[in-house]
Design brief:
mainly alpha; binds zinc ion
Amino acid sequence: MTTAQKQEFKQIIEAEIVSLGEEIEKIRAAIYPEKGEGTSDKVAHISFKQEQSLHFQRYEEATKRLGRLKRAMLKIDTADYGICQECEEAISFERLKLVPESVYCVACMNELVL
Ligand SMILES: [Zn+2]
C-alpha cells in the first residue's frame, strides 16, 4: 500500500470515528433522557424500556466498532495495516473502503464466521 493510499484510508477512518462518536452521543442521550422527559404512562413506559434495550444493543455495537477503528488508526502507519491477520495476504481496497477497520480478508472472515 502506498503512502497516498494510507493517507486516504486515514481520512476515511478519521471521518468514521467522528460520525460514530456523534452517533454514540445520540444513543447515549436516548438511553438517559433528561429528567422530566420520562413518562408516568405505564404502556409508554414499557415501550420506552423496549426501545432502551435496542439502544443498548446499538450502543454496544457502535462502541465496539469505535474501538476497532481506533486500533486501525494506530496501525495505519505500520506495515500491518490492510494485511489479513489470518492468511497475511493484502485485504482488497474495496473491502477496506467499506470497512476500513478490517483485520481479515473476505475469505478468512467468511471462514471465521462459519
Ligand atoms: Zn485472509
